[in-house]
Design goal:
Shape: flat
Number of strands: 3
Largest sheet: 3 strands, antiparallel
Distance between the termini: 90 Å
Order of helices and strands: EEHEHHHHHHHHHHHHHHHH
Length: about 400
């Protein structure tokens, strides 16, 4: 039987591996002969494809949700990590939990073990874990982090889901136009030879249809290259920031982006402050949640003002980071010493406003796409009809 194991060598380093043995006892004996101290043994996982499934963000969220639930139930950190390392998550996650378990047994803190495991987590996770250990309330701090992480993933899923239908509509419309040029328009190409008096629109459409037919392969190659360039360009962070800066100036879309940024920033700040992270550190961490470069720079200026003794509300009032509603809630939170609660309320209000505005944007995109593509198809049909009637007039 194949066993996966982790052992510690003479230098104190963790050595993972996989070995075939008749039993666990035999595996331990063989490893001891190699001067290895076994720390973990488990049956090796087998997959039908021979490839391990890569852990997704959802897998990561579920695993941390379960870990936090165990800690909230009073289970010790060591037992919790031991349980997590034998769960049914993808192997990459199990390996990271086993690494955390070994680090804890060596005397490291939870925050240090979490940082060493190199999970693909937002930076605030590590600071919330550290703050939770310092305040003696690790499970509550981790719950704040998990809830924030879940909210961010849900926000991303909602945005992708909302954009799915308009994207499919545009792609289907472009495909329909291409099919018309490839299969329909060339049928009327002989009109170009039968008449010298075709309307200009008819000539342009029919000649375009003929050109598309003759160069179809080249067009497909060019389209593929353009798609590849767009994919890699959109993956570039600087390009995304530049596009966000441009869209931020568009009246309706800019307002929607501002509310989305406010929601995420306020939510992160609320989670950090609720876990007793000091205000300056929370502001420094929250900068990373903002995608718009201009707003990030404004938060940096807010940090300088707060360090200089200015209140958070007064400093934010000089910027465009927050909406007016969120700004009023933060001022009230400072006066009543309930800033984390007011930050959370601001996030909820801006989230609702953002969703409503997103629906308005999509409500405009869908009919505009239909009208644009319908207009193109209609233009092609009109040009063909004009060409047919002009030939009939000449023959008559």
């Amino acid at each position: 039987m194949n066993y996966a194991y982790e052992a510690i060598n003479s230098l104190g380093a963790t050595v993972p591996g996989e070995l075939e043995a008749a039993s666990e006892a035999e595996l331990v004996r063989r490893l001891q002969m190699q001067q290895l101290v076994v720390t973990d043994i488990r049956p090796a996982r087998e997959t039908s494809s021979g490839l391990a499934r890569k852990a997704t963000k959802k897998d990561l969220l579920v695993s941390f949700h379960e870990m936090t639930t165990l800690l909230e139930s009073g289970v010790s950190i060591a037992d919790t990590l031991e349980s997590q390392s034998h769960a049914t998550y993808p192997e990459s996650l199990l390996r990271q939990y086993r690494q955390m378990s070994v680090s804890i047994r060596r005397g490291q803190s939870f925050a240090e073990a979490l940082a060493g495991a190199d999970f693909d987590l937002p930076s605030y996770f590590h600071h919330l874990a550290k703050a939770g250990e310092l305040t003696g309330n690790l499970s509550a701090s981790l719950r704040e982090a998990v809830d924030q992480f879940e909210y961010e993933l849900q926000l991303s899923r909602d945005l992708k889901s909302a954009l799915m239908y308009p994207s499919i509509l545009v792609i289907a419309s472009l495909s329909a136009v291409m099919l018309i040029f490839v299969f329909v328009v060339p049928k009327f190409a002989p009109l170009l030879e039968r008449s010298d008096n075709l309307p200009l629109l008819s000539k342009i459409v029919m000649q375009t249809g003929l050109w598309v037919n003759e160069n179809l392969l080249m067009m497909l190659i060019i389209a593929g290259m353009i798609a590849a360039v767009l994919f890699f360009t959109v993956s570039n962070r600087k390009f995304r920031e530049a596009m966000l800066g441009i869209m931020d100036r568009v009246p309706l879309i800019g307002r929607w982006l501002a509310e989305t940024e406010t929601t995420k920033w306020s939510s992160v700040m609320s989670a950090l402050l609720s876990s007793k992270v000091d205000l300056v550190t929370a502001l420094e961490l929250s900068v990373q949640s903002l995608r718009n470069k201009r707003r990030r720079l404004e938060v940096v200026s807010v940090i300088s003002d707060v360090k200089g003794g200015m209140s958070l509300g007064e400093s934010l009032e000089k910027t465009t980071v927050l909406t007016a509603t969120a700004l009023n809630l933060i001022r009230s939170g400072e006066k009543t010493a309930k800033l984390p609660e007011m930050m959370r309320s601001a996030a909820k209000l801006c989230d609702e406003a953002s969703r409503v505005r997103m629906q308005r944007v999509l409500t405009l995109i869908e009919p505009l796409a239909v009208l644009t593509m319908g207009g193109v198809v209609g233009l092609i049909i009109v040009s063909v009809i004009l060409g047919i009637t002009s030939v009939n007039d000449v023959n008559f």
